[in-house]
Design goal:
- The protein has a single domain, classed as 3-Layer(aba) Sandwich (Glycerol-3-phosphate (1)-acyltransferase), CATH 3.40.1130.
- It has 10 helices and 7 strands.
- It has a 7-stranded mixed sheet, with helices on both faces.
- Helix 5 links the parallel strand 3 and strand 4.
Length: about 250
């Protein structure tokens, strides 16, 4: 809550700006997407997310710096530093995200991610993982870009956590393009590790209010195509992580 104490007018104004965009996005969804069959409109939902992600990033004065070829279809595998990653990646390229099932129960965020066509998985239930792999493959077959954050949780950005391989089966077996992405944040008036990355014992609302108090967030995303060397998903998980580490540290 430090941001609210130091910059009460900035935080309050931006917070109501945030709520206004969420309201507009909801109305937009109800008008153009709500009553269409879900599977036939994944691309439309991805475009809906992109439109409003770009508007939300303006609140944080965030203009992403992008390096490398931006993927538009296939599977994109990226590191994960927090909730801002979703807005950042969606603003750059229309996509459908794969997320842990707990997010569905989060206030507001869960509702918005469901409207955006997010594919939810419970990794603790193996039967659901198999079903989710089928849904990922179906989305890939529709030509939609699917974004997977296989660390399973967000980190402080110091390194890249080991990848969970259970959802990489479509990537290992599919002929669809495969790309990697590496996200990094910096701040002029704060510490990106504490103020942007969402990890450890952070809770959403205090973290968001603090972030709204920062002058601007800088973000860099490096993309690169990835060539498979085999069909073993565990080996693929290791290779993808190493490639993202190279992008991050390069």
């Amino acid at each position: 809550m430090n941001g609210l104490c130091r910059h009460p007018f900035r935080v309050t104004g931006r917070f109501f700006w945030f709520l206004g965009i969420v309201f507009t996005a909801t109305f937009d969804f109800l008008l153009h997407n709500a009553f269409r069959p879900e599977k036939s409109t994944l691309a439309d939902r991805a475009l809906w997310v992109q439109r409003h992600a770009r508007r939300l990033l303006k609140i944080f004065k965030l203009e992403p710096q992008v390096a490398g070829p931006v993927p538009t279809r296939g599977l994109l595998v990226s590191n994960h530093l927090g909730y801002l990653d979703i807005l950042l990646l969606a603003s750059i390229t229309p996509a459908v995200f794969v997320s842990k099932s707990e997010i569905k129960s989060w206030p507001l965020v869960g509702w918005l991610t469901q409207m955006g066509g997010t594919l939810f998985v419970n990794r603790e239930r193996r039967g659901q993982v198999g079903r989710m792999n089928e849904e990922i493959q179906a989305a890939l077959d529709l030509g939609v870009l699917v974004i997977l954050l296989p660390e399973g949780t967000s980190s402080n950005g110091g390194s890249v956590l080991p990848f969970k391989s259970s959802l990489l089966e479509p990537a290992a077996q599919s002929a669809h393009p495969l790309s990697v992405g590496a996200i990094q944040y910096t701040l002029e008036d704060g510490d990106a590790v504490e103020d942007v990355c969402y990890w450890g014992d952070h809770t959403f609302l205090p973290h968001l209010l603090n972030l709204l108090g920062k002058r601007a967030v800088r973000a860099t995303v490096h993309f690169a195509p990835f060539q498979r060397t085999g069909a073993d998903r565990k080996q693929l998980a290791l290779q993808l992580r190493e490639e993202i580490l190279k992008l991050k540290n390069g």
